[in-house]
Write a structure and sequence with these properties.
The complex is a heterotrimer of chains A (159), B (158) and C (290). Chain B is α+β, with helices and mostly antiparallel strands. Chain B contains six helices and five strands; from the N terminus they run E-E-H-E-E-H-E-H-H-H-H. Chain C has 290 residues and is an alpha+beta fold. Chain C is built from eleven helices and 14 strands. Chain C is globular. Classes of the chains: A alpha+beta (159), B alpha+beta (158), C alpha+beta (290). Chains in contact: A-C, B-C.
Chain lengths: 159, 158, 290
Amino acid sequence: MIFEDHFFIEAPRSAVWAYIWDPEKMSRCVPGVEQVVAESDDTYSVRVKTRVGFLSATFNLGVKITEAEEPVRLMSVFEGKDSKIASRLKQVNTMELVDVSATRTEIRYKSEVTLMGKLATLGRSVIKGKAKQMMKAFSQKLKTEIEKTEADMAAAKEV
Amino acid sequence: MDQRNVNLSINGDSYQIAVRPNEFLADVLRSKLDLTGTKTACDMGVCGSCTVLLDGLPVSSCLTLAVDAEGKEITTIEGLESADGELHAVQESFLDKGAVQCGFCTAGMVMTTKSFLDKNPKPTEQEIRQALSGNICRCTGYAKIVEAVEDAAKKMQR
Amino acid sequence: MQSFEYFEAQSLEEVVEALVSGEEVRVLAGGCGILLLMKQNLYFPRALVNIKKISGLKYIEQDNGTVRIGTLATHNEVKGTLLVAEKLPLLSEALSYVATNRIRNMATIGGTLAHADPTSDAAPALLALEARVVVTGSQGEREIELAAFFKDYFETVLEPGEVLKEIIVPLPPETAKGFYTRFEVRKAMDKAMPGVAVLIDLEEDKKTIRSVRIGLSGVGNCCLRLEEAEQFLAGKEDHPDIRQKIGDIVKATIDPVEEYHFTADYKKQIAAVFLQRVFAEAYSRASSSS
């Protein structure tokens, strides 16, 4: 499944980059994130609980930044499984940052999601629909967090 | 998970057995009661091979908990022949018309047919096909099965 | 098959007690939804509370200007009642599409609504009939319009300690006629994509639309009413232009997700086609009724 979208963040590109370059910060924006643990400098373990109605799945994902071209392009991979429901997830994300103005950045992302195993039998449209919702929630959280960080920094400067 | 005793009334006979709440009627019939005429194939309620009648109504026994079958009249394929071993008209027609190949769908087809003809004694071919649309057969291509149902309907009207 | 804690309730109060007794407790009615998911190892409730032993929840009766249906009434029980066949034929029609006869003998009308499958057949018909559900929980009873009941894939507005008790369907005017159908390839077990229910009441001239209600399934994460089209159609007569317009409305309203054989665009197109067909048939039935 491929998801493509774009959204704007009211922050300079350097600030956006600083945030997404940090896999720990990025992991915390994943909807349903329960735990983020550093495995090494560039890999993190993330436990994510997703729900579709009354059904739930808890994935243990490894999050890794695979390519970085500061400050314009970032590729990351989320990969892992939920053994209880015998399902695997792999998500390859490409994020492009576009300088709109000194205080505004556009993020264009493309995510390729592969879901295998039992969960995929639920029905592709259900899975894809849910994944689309999660992408939107992720983007929203990312935007909120970055803008909040910017606002906090601006407030600190004024003091 | 604890077992509990249930009374199951099957083909007019009373059985008292211990089952767990997570056991399905199809498995209890086959494994605990030696009534292996009822088959399980998809185990999902789709194929119809597990069809039994509960109070005369066809249900998927693979989706029916054994505890829920208590208090109902259960009819399985074994219950169709008469006390002296005479086959039911539907069973005879299936044999006469060659509507049985591997036999796996047959019990479900026969139970569905019996219940259908009891309610609709003079069906059209289209009605027959509609009635059997929930029973899957991989061997016959359905033609002989439909013929068998038509034949049984005629027999049962006499 | 996995283990679970098993409660057998003898009353709705006991159901509520069981539901609030801990985490992950779910109501078990017909079982065609959740037992299947459990068998497939997709769903692992900690406990199930079986409500089928509760007496007095299978009624289908007329009460003033409504039909009241107990939550445990099965699809075939509802479909086969003279009251429903005569006064709510749209519901009978929709129920005849559900799965197979065996499932219709097992699956309950309350269970199918609480399961909130976005490809339901019963839901669009009940939406077009403006049904409401009665729900009981530890805070007491409440009535919810079906149009406000579905929230997301397999998700309703039911709170954790609540159970669906009854479905109330207001009797439509005698002059109102409806039609339900869905796009399907098989005779049985297919999923609505879309399923469309339209209920139309015409003015005395048998041409002008007094009111219309449209229920859809298989077009997104929930079954829904197409209120914009309903409002547009009020006061109008059937005409190719208005059919075009309601097709445009449904295409603009729904947000379907692409799957193997069908792109999102295709799903929108076919939703428009089926809406127009169902509207045409319902209108024809209404205009030719005496």
